[in-house]
């Protein structure tokens, strides 16, 4: 697969990818992407209205035509802990590093907000393991109402990791 070229300045061409905080103009693209995987029970569904209300918590990867290829979101669990949610990559863009990029961008957002750690409930623990997440006990997050068949993973966010500028 072609590695993703990350562009931070200027207008991207059709083949270029930008990873950034989400905007209201991304809502329909995010909703469609999440729904694509919610239909396969891999993600929890989120309505367009829910995404609008949480738009400041989303990051997206877009192509040169501003189409949303990937998204991920942060949900505050406590002042020190954040949940990683709605991690989704368009089927046609799998395996090009976009999942890693949007997770990295949400982690940067979490650090900016003062969170020390992130957790997720997922059916894709091997993806999260590749990103440095470790198995966690569901009981560590008692206020999270997760689907019973998901696995829990978590990662400590260290301050010395290189921040991802595009998430700022
Ligand atoms: C899981 C998902 C987000 C991965 O996105 P992606 O862009 O294909 O992943 P990346 O290319 O960034 O891969 C990053 C790393 O994870 C690994 N990886 C990706 N998907 C994997 C999987 N299903 N199983 C095991 N490892 C996986 C890659 O090999 C890569 O590892 P490496 O860097 O050591 O080579 C994508 O498949 C998806 O959207 N799935 C449907 C929705 C979903 O399940 N979301 C997660 C639930 S919370």
Automatic annotation (TrEMBL):
The keyword Transferase applies. One of its GO terms (molecular function) is acyltransferase activity, transferring groups other than amino-acyl groups. Residues 17-158 form the N-acetyltransferase domain. Keywords: Acyltransferase, Transferase. CDD domains: NAT_SF. This is N-acetyltransferase domain-containing protein. It holds the Pfam family Acetyltransf_7. It comes from the Bacteria. The keyword Transferase applies. InterPro entries: Acyl_CoA_acyltransferase, Bact_Acetyltransf, GNAT_dom. The lineage of its organism: Bacteria, Pseudomonadati, Gemmatimonadota, Gemmatimonadia, Gemmatimonadales.
């Amino acid at each position: 697969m072609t590695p993703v070229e990350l562009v931070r300045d200027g207008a991207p061409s059709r083949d270029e990818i930008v990873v950034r905080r989400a905007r209201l103009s991304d809502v329909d693209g995010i909703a469609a992407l999440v729904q694509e995987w919610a239909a396969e029970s891999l993600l929890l569904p989120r309505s367009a209205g829910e995404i609008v209300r949480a738009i400041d918590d989303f990051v997206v990867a877009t192509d040169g035509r501003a189409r949303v290829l990937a998204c991920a979101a942060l949900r505050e669990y406590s002042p020190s802990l954040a949940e990683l949610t709605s991690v989704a990559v368009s089927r046609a863009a799998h395996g090009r590093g976009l999942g890693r990029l949007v997770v990295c961008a949400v982690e940067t957002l979490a650090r900016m907000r003062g969170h020390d750690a992130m957790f997720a409930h997922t059916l894709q623990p091997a993806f999260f393991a590749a990103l440095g997440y470790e198995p966690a006990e569901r009981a560590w997050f008692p206020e999270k109402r997760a689907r019973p068949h998901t696995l829990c993973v978590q990662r400590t966010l260290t301050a010395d990791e290189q921040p991802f500028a595009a998430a700022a």
